[in-house]
Amino acid sequence: MLLPGKKTVLCALHLNWAEAHCFPIHTKVKKWWDIMRTPLGIIPEGNNEYTIVYVAIDKSKRFHPMGMVKVKLNTDVLDTRRKELK
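RE: above sequence
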């Protein structure tokens, strides 16, 4: 929600945000970026596989390029995390 007379955005949902975690994708794909930035979306591909679209910084480029990586969700890990959060 944009507050009247303000240039910042206030989100009531921020209280429910989970702690940030980094996915070490550089251990699985050739690293072309200098700084990993913002995930833009996650696309379900079926069979617990997803494509993540993200922006990164390559200091040798004028503009920040976008990248994609395909990941597979480990449902056993997800079940364990859900139990921990209850």
